[in-house]
Design brief:
Length: 86
């Protein structure tokens, strides 16, 4: 079976889009718990100095767009690398 780079890149982008939306909903609905999770991910660092969440529509869209593009490129590069080593 030949791996198609574009299909893999699209799958990475779609999965990232879904996770981005779920993450944004988590932040909006449970901001305190979200901050706690960020603290866990940052090895216990005090993240309160970063301030409160300011998730507005522009931050949501621009951050999501940058992340999804990065995921698509990562998926494409992964597919290319997979074909090279296969």
């Amino acid at each position: 079976m030949k791996l198609e780079k574009n299909i893999l890149a699209n799958a990475f982008a779609l999965a990232t889009t879904i996770l981005w939306i779920l993450c944004a909903l988590f932040v909006v609905l449970l901001p305190d718990l979200s901050m706690t999770v960020v603290k866990w991910w940052m090895h216990g660092m005090d993240v309160t100095a970063l301030g409160a969440w300011s998730l507005d529509l522009a931050n949501f869209l621009l951050g999501g767009l940058a992340l999804v593009i990065s995921a698509w490129v990562s998926g494409y590069i992964f597919g290319w690398a997979w074909e090279k080593v296969s």
